[in-house]
Amino acid sequence: QKLKAELKSKLEAIEKDRNTLEEGIQILREKAVIRELEEKVREEQDAVSRLSFEKRELEDELKQPSRFEISETVEKTKAELEDKKDKFGTEAKEQPETEKTEQTRAIWKKPEETSESDKEPEETSESDKEHEEQESKKKLRFF
Predict the structure, then answer these.
(1) pLDDT score recorded for residue 85
(2) Residues 27-54 pLDDT 10s
(3) Which residues contact 114 (CB under 8 A, 6 or more apart)?
(4) At residue 7, does pLDDT exceed 70?
(5) Cα-only R_g, the chain
(6) How much is the average pLDDT of 71-91?
(7) Measured between alpha carbons, how far is 82 from 79 in angstroms, rounded to an integer?
(8) Kindly report the CA angle at 122 between 62 and 115, in degrees rounded to 5?
(9) Residue ranges of the domains in the chain?
(10) Is 136 in contact with 49 (CB distance < 8 Å)?
């Protein structure tokens, strides 16, 4: 009788351990699936950030006038000047001398003397863009 009770208690303990191990295995499997999903989410976020970066670059490229458009504008301006010369019967100057002098002064000004409108917008270097992209990827990984 005593042996029977002892064996029953061992069996119950073993079954309890088995159930605990099965639950632990199930939890670990779920964690593995979650980790895989998180990896896929990160990969997709990286792909989306690369695509959005490429999209911004292409949009910026499209915003800049093409060389063809610039040359067309120059040709139109030259044609307009020729028309003005013909209308007045004299050779009109392309720019008054004072305007040329002012432009020359603006070019030779010290950097602190130039106004904000005289300054050309600075472009960010490729390495800066890459650095910003890496920073945004790091931030996305935290979410």
Answers:
(1) 73
(2) 999 999 999 999 999 999 999 999 999 9
(3) 106
(4) yes
(5) 37
(6) 72
(7) 5
(8) 120
(9) 1-89
(10) yes
Strand spans (E) along 1-43? none
Tokens of 127: 């390495």
HSE of 22, CA atoms in CB hemisphere, 13 A: 6
d(CA 111, CA 114) in angstroms, rounded, equals 6
- Token couple for 27: 């939890």
Are 133 and 49 in contact, with CB atoms under 8 Å apart? yes
> Is the per-residue pLDDT at 117 higher than 50?
no
Question: Closest Cα to residue 95, out of 84, 109, 108, 107?
Answer: 84
For residue 103, how many other CB atoms are within 10 A of its CB? 12
Task: Give the length of the chain.
Answer: 143
Q: Bigger pLDDT: 122 or 72?
A: 72
Give the whole-angstrom CA distance, residue 129 versus residue 115: 27
Q: How far apart are the C-alpha atoms of 134 and 131, rounded to whole Å?
A: 5
Side-chain half-sphere exposure of 123, counting CA atoms within 13 A = 7
User: What would the two tokens of residue 32 be?
Assistant: 């593995």
Predicted pLDDT at 138: 65
